[in-house]
Amino acid sequence: MRAVGDNGSVNAAQSRHVAREPLAVRIALPLGVLFTAMASLATLCGVIADSPVARVELPAPAAALAIPTVEVDARPAADPCADDAVRAALDTGDDAGVIAAFGGGAAFREAVANGNAPCVSLSDPNRSWVVINKQRPLEPASFAPASLAEIGLSATTRSNELRPEPKDALESMATEASRAGAGTIGINNGYRSFGLQESTYDGHVRDKGQSGADAVSARPGFSEHQSGLAFDLVACDPRCGTIEAFGATPQGRWVAENGWRHGFIVRYEPGRTGTTGYAPEPWHIRYIGPELAQAYHDGGFHTLEEFFGLPPAPDYSH
Ligand SMILES: [Zn+2]
Fold first, then answer.
1. How far is the CA of 311 from the centre of ligand 1 (A)?
2. Are residues 117 and 80 in contact, defined by beta-carbon separation less than 8 angstroms?
3. Comparing C-alpha atoms, which of 165, 144, 155, 215 is closest to residue 190?
4. Angle CA(120)–CA(122)–CA(127) in degrees, nearest 5?
5. 58 CA distance to ligand 1 centroid (A)?
6. From the CA of 243, how far away is ligand 1's center (Å)?
7. Distance, CA 53 to ligand 1 centroid (Å)?
8. Confidence bin at 48 (pLDDT 50/70/90)
9. Which SUPFAM superfamilies does the UniProt record give (predicted)?
10. 97 CA from centroid of ligand 1 (Å)
């Protein structure tokens, strides 16, 4: 049995059998009409099929419209910093309590990004929401966290400490990754002091010059590692690899997908160098706490600068 197209080709090749061509036309024409009719029917079916879906989706905008009214009733948006619960949590250094008093991570973010939360300093390195980049050094430059704890994972350097909260979150993330079959996660670098950052950066300057060093290493006083909230991961199967290899490992993919559940974000994503000032670093993870990490994830954010409505920080001022 031959298809219509085959007949057409044979007829074209054997042009002396002219009598057969009208036969192909006679077959093709009704088929064309049939296809057109089927297409019309399909379009009609599509319209019919779409209708119930459209009807199902209709209540959603109505529900979304109702939410701000509820929030306005519960918490006047005018000055969240005047709220007693916000002030009390700020005074005791209870970051999660502050965010809860604002009405959750998304509400906190929105207030800060809109300039409606002057009591929240994005420059305070003691807070889990601090933003450190090439335009925003640690203040003071010599900052050191009040408390540090050794991370209970395989470590490839001696810089294996973090603040207690991110340390606990990292350990539970590593346990969950392992249980999920993603393999073993190890630590390369956690907290780095101003002094250690100084020698690290100076080493890069000696090797690559200042602009080369700036592309791969923060200047002392400008590194997230100095906050005790950021760290670099490696995959250990069972021997630990390099930070550069981490992104392509099952561990790296798992962390990129699930880190937010534990309060983490991948700080330097691909295509964001113009905002963050850094080439992609899938191994460099920053703790912002579970409430903000969920808001970051749900809101589809890719930089902490955009998350808080801050200007891009592609480079140092001088
Ligand atoms: Zn790092």
1. 21
2. yes
3. 155
4. 80
5. 46
6. 9
7. 47
8. very low
9. Hedgehog/DD-peptidase
10. 28
Q: What are the E-state strand segments in the chain?
A: 149-150, 161-162, 184-189, 230-236, 264-268, 281-287
pLDDT in tens, 276-317: 999 999 999 999 999 999 999 999 999 999 999 999 999 999
CATH number for region 149-307: 3.30.1380.10
CA of 227 to the centre of ligand 1 (A): 11
The predicted structure's pLDDT at residue 2: 39
* Helix or strand holding residue 241 (H, E): none
Q: Is the predicted pLDDT of residue 149 greater than 70, yes or no?
A: yes
Name the strand (E) or helix (H) holding 197. Answer: helix 194-216
Token pair of 186 as six digits:
């190890």
Section 248-255 average pLDDT: 98
CA distance 225 to 201: 13
Q: How far apart are CA 283 and CA 265, in angstroms?
A: 10
pLDDT of residue 78: 66
- Residue 119: DSSP 8-state: T
| In the chain, domain spans | 4-57, 59-113, 149-307
Contact 287/205 with Cβ under 8 angstroms?
no
Distance 189 CA to ligand 1 centre (A): 7
What is the spatial distance between Cα 40 and Cα 57, in angstroms, rounded to a whole number? 26
Rounded to whole angstroms, the Cα distance separating 50 from 255 reads: 38
Does position 11 have pLDDT exceeding 50, yes or no?
no
Quote the ligand 1 centre to 314 CA distance (angstroms).
17
| 258, burial (CB in 10 Å: exposed 0-12, middle 13-18, buried 19+) | middle
